[in-house]
Amino acid sequence: MADSRSQTFLRQGFVAVGVIMASILTAFDVRTASIGLPDLRGAFGLSFDEGSWLGTFATAPQILIAPSVAWLIAVFGVKRVMLGPIVIYTAMSILIPFCQAFEVLAALHAARAVMLGIFVGATLMTAFRNLDRTYWIFALAFYVLRIPFAQNLGLYTAGSYPQSVGWQWLYWQGAIVAPLVGVLFWYGAKPTEIDWQLLKRADWGGMALLGTTLTILYFALDQGNRLDWFRSGFVVSMLITAAFLAYVFLWHESAVKEPWAHLSILFSRNIALGFAAIACFMIASLGSSLLEPNFLVSVAHLRPEQIGDFSGPHAILLLACATMTAVLLVRTVKQRLTLMIGFTCFALSAWLGTQLTNLWSLPEFRLIVVLQIFGEEITFLAAVATLFSNVNPARAIALTAYVQVVRLMCSETVGTMMATWIRQREQLHSYLIGLHVDGGTPGWSSTLTALVSGNGASQAGAASHGMGAVASIVQREANVLAYIDGFWITFLAAIAGLFVVALMSRSPAHPLTHHAVN
């Protein structure tokens, strides 16, 4: 009996570590590819447009199959679903650095993204099906941990690899981790038979329609900012196609005898509000994932490895404290109060961000990053716990599908919209500041003289250099004001999140939120 218990404990340990590694691998892969895209463009000899498309092909296909993975695992088991994609992902990660043709690169990145979608879609279902209920909350907490981990360490590795060991390791790092995940799942996952009854009731049409719809929409969103949205025929056609397929999907799910992911699952009050809280979370978390690193690159002129270069032991301790705090809060004060604490952290960090000036660098963002990390861990963990504690267990697979939809699509949507907002606000602030900077401005001549003093140029050359310096200052201040506007958006999202939580009712008992359930 003792030997059986030790084997069970060891098996569950393998699964737990595998889930952690798989979830971090996916987030880390996407983050490093995004931050390292300029280096990849240079390495592959791609134009700006080709590089942009490469980034889209490396991310958009994730959503093609990710919503269906939980159902596939329920039917075929973890081993049958995961091991093949792990082998394919590893092989492509090794081969991609040796390719040069853009078409081949795009195809390999797209196929690799599909494999990543399987990994991240499998993590939650793998944990729930292979771990004792006592450990569910810890598996979910480490699933959430991937967000701040990838945001911070991903910045450092994406910038440091090209400068040290080589840009190829942006791909090869995954080729090392993925086989380890496969080994852990192989020895840890329970042996399962194929569920032929569930397979016979498969809603293949619903799964294909939803995955295709979201992939097309992802392409439109990812290219929207670069192509200027509705001024682009490609973006408009993609949006129309996605809208049509979404309508077909909804009609199909209402007509089929046993729908795979009918929208009725969202009609529960707490589930709908839980997804609304996740949407607010996605916007509020842009402070550390988008605003801070982009500001430090565009205004402070730091490289990615400088932005993410903070003391490793302190970073690990901070992430561990945030994770344990989130678990403790969900288990003691429950979801609603935990969500309020998380959104309060976001609101404080956003308010601090609105005090931004052009003199800010890494030290000024330290407290913002700490508050964001705690907010991310606490809020997302409590929101997902709210969803699963309010769903009928028979419909948990459908709920997992929508969690993946929101995780991928909401993240892409709010990130793209924020990038567009920052670009447009920078243009507006640049115009407004420029209205007050001309030859009639008091002190104009003395300012130009001070800006170019000591450069030894002629009077005409000095005036030209002075005008260039003034234009640079105007652009810098316009950027600062635009990022301040961005932080105000995240602040409002955090406040909206508090209102959403206030509308929630008490959640029933669930293994995620209670130490024991009879």
What does this structure look like?
The relative contact order is 0.11. The protein is built from 21 helices and no strands. It is about 75% helix and about 0% strand. It folds into three domains: about 200 residues, Growth Hormone, Chain: A (Up-down Bundle); about 55 residues; about 230 residues, Growth Hormone, Chain: A, CATH 1.20.1250. The chain has about 525 residues and is an all-alpha fold.
Key attributes of the depicted protein:
518 residues, mainly alpha, Growth Hormone, Chain: A, 21 helices, globular
**Percentage beta strand:** under 5%
CATH superfamily of the largest domain: MFS general substrate transporter like domains
Name the helicity range: over 70%
- Any low-confidence stretches, pLDDT <50, length ≥5? none
Helix segment tally: 21
The CATH topology of the largest domain is Growth Hormone, Chain: A
What is the H/E string?
Answer: HHHHHHHHHHHHHHHHHHHHH
Assign the CATH class of the largest domain: Mainly Alpha
Rg of Cα set: 25 Å
Strand-pairing-aware structural class: mainly alpha
As an assembly, this protein is single chain
Number of strands: 0
Distance separating the two termini: 23 Å
Largest sheet: none
Short description:
The chain has 518 residues and is mostly helical. The chain folds into three domains: 1-202, MFS general substrate transporter like domains (Growth Hormone, Chain: A, Up-down Bundle), CATH 1.20.1250; 203-259; 264-437 and 460-518, Up-down Bundle (Growth Hormone, Chain: A).
